[in-house]
Amino acid sequence: MNLWASSRKCRSSVYVLGVRCSSTADNHTFSQSMLLPKTSFALRPNPTQTEARLRARTCTEIYQWQSKKIERPEFILHDGPPYANGDLHMGHALNKILKDIINRFHLLRGRRVQYIPGWDCHGLPIENKALLELGEDPSTLPPLAIRHAAYKTALREVDNQREQFQRLGIMADWSNETTYRTIDHSYQMRQLRVFQNMVQNGLIYRRYRPVHFSPSSRSALAEAELVYKDDHVSHSIFVSFELQNDDGPVLGLPDGPIQLLVWTTTPWTLTANMAIAVHPDLSYVVLRRASGLPLVIVAKDRMDALADILGDVEVLAEIAGSELVGASYIPIFAPLCPNLPTLKIIAASHVTAASGTGLVHTAPAHGADDYSAFRALGLSNEIVCHVGGAGEFTSAVVDTVGEAGKILVGEGVLDSGSRKVVDLLKEVGALVKIQRIKHRYPYDWRTNQPIIMTSTSQWFANLDVIKADALDALNTVSFVPPVSRARLTAFVQLRDEWCISRQRVWGVPIPALHHIPTDTALLDSSTLEHILAILDEKGIEYWWEGPTEEFVPPALREQGIDAWRKGTDTMDVWFDSGTAWAMLGEREHGGPRADVCLEGSDQHRGWFQSQLLTAVASNTRPYATLITHGMVLDQTGKKMSKSLGNVTSPMSVVSGGPNPKTEPAYGADVLRFWAGTVDYWNDTYLGPVVLAQAAEALRKIRNSARFILGNIGNVEARASMERVRRADMGLAERYVMHELYMLEQTALEGYMQYNFAKVVAALSSFANGTLSALYFDISKDGLYANALSSVERRAVVTVLEQVLTTMNSIMAPIVPHLAEEIHEAFTETEVSVFTTPWTTLGSEWHDLKANEEMKLLLLLRTAVLAGLENSRADKKIKSSLEAEVELLIPELEEPSTFTKLLQREESFLKTLFISSDATLIDEGSLGTASPEWVYVSVFTIPCVFRINPMSFALTQLCSIR
Q1: Helix, strand or coil for residue 924?
Q2: What's 507's DSSP letter?
Q3: What is the sign of the dihedral through the CA atoms of 833, 624, 758 and 118?
Q4: Are the CB atoms for 18 and 6 separated by under 8 Å?
Q5: Which of 511, 637, 828, 904 has the most CB atoms lying inside 10 A of its own CB?
Q6: Most confident of the following: 3-12, 334-343, 750-759
Q7: Residues 42, 788: Cα–Cα separation, whole Å
Q8: CA of 184: how far to CAs of 69, 196, 509, in Å?
Q9: Is a pLDDT exceeding 80 seen at residue 222?
Q10: What are the Aminoacyl-tRNA synthetase class Ia domain coordinates in residue numbering (predicted)?
Q11: Bridge partners, 318 (sequence order)
């Protein structure tokens, strides 16, 4: 570009640019003497082979090395155990990769990392899988046979997942001895000791009350084991109960039959009806219907909503709910069972006029609110339940329905049993109307089948006592993202008790003794001490294998050995995994057991909560920081589903799928790089297009490393090279080092904030922009042509060495296999990159002046390159080296700041423009010779912005002088 004078005076900040021809150079003249790049670092390696070769070094070996070699401080990331059932899905992969990024960062920063992978091995899915493989009816198998089969299944699934986790490049000691499983003897004994401590503190009790019960699992469930579906369909019904005839005059109501209109979505619970509840503060009305049917009572505020049910009505009387309390009514199935006693209307605060009729059918065996209302009246020991362990009507239903109720016995309450109840209601004339409704309903999260509320005898943990302490403990926890604090806090606030018993064979036993004559359970600290000593010596299985008399303490044997039996309940799997904090031990100077726990958002209802509750009950805190990630969806935002065919398997990403064209083997680092690019605290997207983009972005970073490795020479050459001091570096080198310093500070901040997308964005921008698009472009000619001993070349190599070292430290936590490859090529050793601490650049590289000056020159460069591109488009040149650039400097009384910069850096301009020459001229120096061709443009320095580092105020510099 030739910058030459015009006949007019130039303005102070306007520079005239020109491009003209230059002598054509022979591009092959010095090819034999050039220092061309040379490296063994592959451009496109086979990721499967390369990662397999590096896996042991960067995973198990480095974890074992740091455990022995690095002293404190220690960083503990506590692994929430995935369920040992089937191959890994993408949620598993995201979870483990995020944890590994955090661990590797802290290792590079000089901390010893403790990370013990674990597995949750009990529960129904594993039990069902084992039974399916046995191919036998579980009802015919003894408990020990089922347990042994489930144990083998769990071990097999753990080994399968262990191997897959290692292929993701997860740093840990993966041997059996250094991982944990909830089926390990030592783990189970720690769990039982936590349970014993809770018993001793009076937090565990047994009660017959309604619980969430899964007929498909045949077990009680905790709230955390439920999922709610909004499209569940129920057949709701309006039914009428008859107020006892002689109560009308007493209440001041009209004479004649009066009905109490009730609405329910669970017709099957009507066989266990024990009361009708009203709210004492609501107003109720007695209505005469145009049809001439019996009078009916409903809440006054529900009249309009019930118009379709009632038809035209006339209000005969209005009565307060408090006046209805205590009135009697005839049981709904009395026509089929005449000897049933009358029942009462009770007061209950949960009754509202928001739905239904304002009168609520109350079956305390099948509803938490109903049970609470009966308990407040001191009637909770009298509740009636007709439902068995498979969710079916038992023979006890005949007691309230009469002989006609035999058609219900053995029928599932959620399907055929409910329909037959409706038929009986028609028979007794109590059915008013059926409505099919779609509403929100709880399902068993394991079987994906609806649950019921029904009363059984279960073990509970009293959370009321520890809730305040749990909430206080959460106040000391850091949450990522911060909004997740409110979610976990709300879940804890809403819980009063935790049903911890399950009616399954495969699990940790609740070691309670049951006194047969009185049908009472005994569970206290002294009894547990005796039992746990036996189990510790002989193993957990001995609870099922050993004789009862051995578990009965001597003080109880005087009542007779035959008077006792062992309990058959097992613990909730959330109690199993929730006590995992106990394996971490006490921290020095107190404090939470773990520095970080990281799991999916569903664990706010699960593991995060169960850890908190069991730890607080044991007077400790489980974690200092909770990190939550979202789900992995397909690239269109849909949930991954086998039925939809949109599932992306982590192992197919790593090793390839059946069709290499559509499912290429990207290797673990591409998957890890993708995980580092997403805002993981939200739901994330993954599919073929997203993976291809991640692979391309990582390839560009790899190419940057390859360029550096090819130009800085081998270890021997670098050992004899004298590095260039900062004071002797050119503007470009100081600018790149400033950009590298800023990159490192951004990366450190991103890692500390657990914002890995911030790290990857800054790294990619630096590699693609500062390096590939600028520094590599302007420095490669000097690298190829300058002497090895020249200051210019040594300055570039000095910078490139540091760039590679710092970039490798930044990328290593995210893409460890690539970092190991680079480190291996750089050091020519097989020592892991993670043995070298990440040493940060000194603040002297924070060079705001170099940054400001270079940014000005880059604005000029953009204009020059545009002119060069125009001449290239017109086929005047093929390469920018075939052109000369001249810059006509404005004639001013005093040179501007920009002019001084150009004058100082004149020798650097041709390098910056990648031209054959670049010179500064004034009007008086303009020659008269006409070039063969020339391109002329006017360049005005625009306003630029600069941040004042002292006050951080934004100041505007609108003229450069």
Answers
A1: helix
A2: S
A3: positive
A4: no
A5: 511
A6: 750-759
A7: 24
A8: 28, 18, 14
A9: no
A10: 62-683
A11: 285
Q: Give the chain's length.
A: 961
Burial of 251 (0-12, 13-18, 19+ CB in 10 A): middle
Q: What is the pLDDT of residue 478?
A: 97
Q: SS3 for 226?
A: strand
Residues 912, 735: contact at Cβ < 8 Å? no
Three-state SS string over 588-609 comes to CCCCCCEEEEEEEHHHHCCHHH
Is residue 331 very low, low, confident or very high in pLDDT (cuts 50, 70, 90)? very high
For residues 398 and 409, give the distance between their C-alpha atoms in angstroms, rounded to a whole number: 8
- Residue pair 411/424 in contact (Cβ under 8 Å)? The answer is no
Give residue for tokens 């022979």: 26
| CA geometry: angle 38, 44, 50, nearest 5 deg | 100
> Residue for token digits 């049903």?
499
CA torsion sign for 274, 278, 280, 285 is negative
687-741: pLDDT as tens digits: 999 999 999 999 999 999 999 999 999 999 899 899 999 999 999 999 999 999 9
Q: How many CB atoms lie within 10 A of CB 44?
A: 8
Six-digit token string for 390: 């498979």
Q: Which two tokens stand for residue 712?
A: 């800085």
694 or 374: which leads in pLDDT = 694
Q: Dump pLDDT digits (tens) for 100-150.
A: 999 999 999 999 999 999 999 998 889 889 988 988 877 788 889 999 999
Q: Which amino acid is at 519?
A: D
A 10 A CB-CB count for 522 gives 17
Contact, 246 vs 467, CB < 8 A? no
Work out the pLDDT band at 927, boundaries 50, 70, 90.
low
Angle of helix 607-617 relative to helix 185-200, nearest 10 degrees, comes to 60
Task: Note whether 779 and 684 are within 8 A (CB).
Answer: no
Q: Please count the other Cβ atoms lying within 10 Å of the Cβ belonging to residue 891.
A: 13
Domains located in the chain, CATH noted: 14-33+861-957 (no CATH), 70-201+465-495+580-629 (3.40.50.620), 234-364+398-440 (3.90.740.10), 684-846 (1.10.730.20)
Contacts of 277 (CB under 8 A, 6+ apart): 345, 346, 347, 348, 350, 351, 359, 360, 362, 370, 373
Q: Which residue has the tokens 């059932």?
A: 85
Pairing of the two strands 594-600 and 623-629: parallel
CB 901 within 8 A of CB 13: no
Over residues 653-693, the pLDDT tens digits come to 999 988 888 899 999 999 999 999 999 999 999 999 999 99
Query: Within 333-428, where are the H helices?
Result: 368-376, 398-401, 416-427
Selection from 417-421, 461-465, 811-815 with the highest mean pLDDT = 811-815
Residue tagged 């779609």 (tokens): 438
Question: Please, are residues 652 and 663 in contact by the beta-carbon 8 Å criterion?
Answer: yes
How far, CA to CA in Å, does 109 sit from each of 263, 738, 756, 817, 846? 64, 21, 16, 18, 21
935-960 mean pLDDT? 41
Per-residue DSSP letter, 229: E
Q: How far is CA 786 from CA 22, 30, 38, 455, 794, in A?
A: 22, 11, 16, 87, 9
Q: What is the 3-state secondary structure (H, E, C) of 186-198?
A: HHHHHHHHHHHHH
Query: What digits encode the pLDDT tens for the residues 514-533?
Result: 999 988 999 999 999 999 99
Q: Where are the alpha helices (DSSP H) in 464-584?
A: 467-475, 484-494, 525-538, 542-545, 548-551, 573-578
Express each pLDDT in 307-321 by its tens digit: 988 888 889 889 999
Give the side-chain half-sphere CA count within 13 A for 786: 18
Q: DSSP labels for 81-148?
A: PPB-SSS--HHHHHHHHHHHHHHHHHHHTTPEEE---EEB--SHHHHHHHHHHHTS-GGGS-HHHHHH
pLDDT the model gives residue 896: 83
Residues 101 and 82: their CA atoms lie apart, in Å, by 18
